[in-house]
């Protein structure tokens, strides 16, 4: 069974601070995705990383896929209250169905 | 238009009842999924389905069954509901050859 451990589980910071969320596994994934979920809604895809060592930037968010494709990180620069939400990493299996294994989530709260 | 929709949004029912949750997508995607999110926000795959194969997560009780009347719909039928079935259920879709999944808004099921 593929497992994804996400840390920290909860994070409360002040507006303007930087933060990093980690997603680790002992399994190799064909791709790694990051989602953000807000209360009462479904997860919304932020980014997909496919290649080991890949780095993608989305405005103030930087995503990195580990060289061995077992781990990933999400770094947010100068966090804003609008970044508040549940961040989920998800690893895709290698089968045709590409089922996702989700991490346990990081609840981020950015205080104004 | 909502890309992936679910009905109902909320469902409250008693133990032992049989209920269905409906999912409809207008994205033309060929693979659909059902996920369960528990009270700790952990999101777990239940089923993946396209017109060729159904993959069932081994931990899903056989009281749960996906039913697809056509390519745009994947409904979730649950027999003999139990208290532990209380959760938020999400439908998601994916186009073959891609990694990205698109989630519906979720159905909050409460079994009393």
Keywords:
heterodimer; A: 112 residues; mainly beta; six-stranded mixed sheet; five-stranded antiparallel sheet; B: 112 residues; 0% helix
Shape of chain A: globular
Share of β-strand residues of chain A: over 45%
In percent, how much strand structure appears in the residues of chain B? over 45%
Query: What is the terminal-to-terminal distance of chain A?
Result: 40 Å
Let me know the largest β-sheet of chain B.
7 strands, mixed
* Beta strand count of chain B: 11
Poorly predicted regions of chain B are: none
Could you tell me the mean pLDDT of chain B?
92
* Rg estimate of chain B, integer Å: 13 Å
Protein model, in words:
The complex is a heterodimer of chains A (112) and B (112). Chain A is built from no helices and eleven strands. Chain A has strands at residues 5-7, 10-14, 19-24, 31-37, 44-49, 55-58, 61-65, 71-76, 85-92, 100-102, 106-111. In chain A, the strands form two sheets. In chain A, strands 2, 4, 5, 9, 10 and 11 form a six-stranded mixed sheet that branches. In chain A, strand 6 (55-58) and strand 7 (61-65) form a beta hairpin. Chain B is an all-beta fold. In chain B, strands 2, 4, 5, 6, 9, 10 and 11 form a seven-stranded mixed sheet that branches. A four-stranded antiparallel sheet of chain B has the order 1-3-8-7, with no helix packed on it. The radius of gyration of chain B is 13 Å and the shape is globular. The termini of chain B are far apart. The A-B interface holds A 30-31, 33, 35, 37, 40-45, 48, 50, 86, 88, 90, 92, 95-102, 104-105, 107 and B 4, 31, 33, 40-45, 48, 50, 53, 55, 57, 90, 92, 94, 99-106.
SSE diagram, text form:
The complex is a heterodimer of chains A (112) and B (112).
Chain A: E1 5-7, E2 10-14, E3 19-24, E4 31-37, E5 44-49, E6 55-58, E7 61-65, E8 71-76, E9 85-92, E10 100-102, E11 106-111
Parallel strand pairs in A: 2-11
Antiparallel strand pairs in A: 1-3, 3-8, 4-5, 4-9, 6-7, 7-8, 9-10, 9-11
Chain B: E1 4-7, E2 10-13, E3 19-25, E4 31-37, E5 43-49, E6 54-56, E7 64-70, E8 73-78, E9 87-94, E10 102-103, E11 107-111
């Amino acid at each position: 069974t593929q497992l994804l451990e996400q840390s920290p589980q909860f994070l409360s910071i002040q507006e303007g601070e930087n933060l990093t969320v980690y997603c680790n596994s002992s399994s190799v994934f064909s791709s790694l995705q990051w989602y953000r979920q807000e209360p009462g809604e479904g997860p919304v895809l932020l980014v997909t990383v496919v290649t080991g060592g890949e780095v993608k930037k989305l405005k103030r968010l930087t995503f990195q896929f580990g060289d061995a494709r077992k781990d990933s990180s999400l770094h947010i620069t100068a966090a804003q209250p609008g970044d508040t939400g549940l961040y989920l990493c998800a690893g895709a299996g290698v089968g045709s169905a590409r089922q996702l294994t989700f991490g346990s989530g990081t609840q981020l709260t950015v205080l104004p | 238009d909502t890309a992936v929709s679910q009905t109902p949004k909320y469902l409250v029912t008693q133990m032992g009842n049989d209920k269905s949750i409906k999912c409809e997508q207008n994205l033309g995607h060929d693979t659909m999924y059902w996920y369960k999110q528990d009270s700790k926000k952990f999101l777990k795959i239940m089923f993946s389905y396209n017109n060729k194969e159904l993959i069932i997560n081994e931990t899903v009780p056989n009281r749960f069954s996906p039913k697809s009347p056509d390519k745009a719909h994947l409904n979730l039928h649950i027999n003999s509901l139990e208290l532990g079935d209380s959760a938020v259920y999400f439908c998601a879709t994916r186009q073959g050859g891609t990694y990205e999944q698109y989630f519906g808004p979720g159905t909050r099921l409460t079994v009393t």
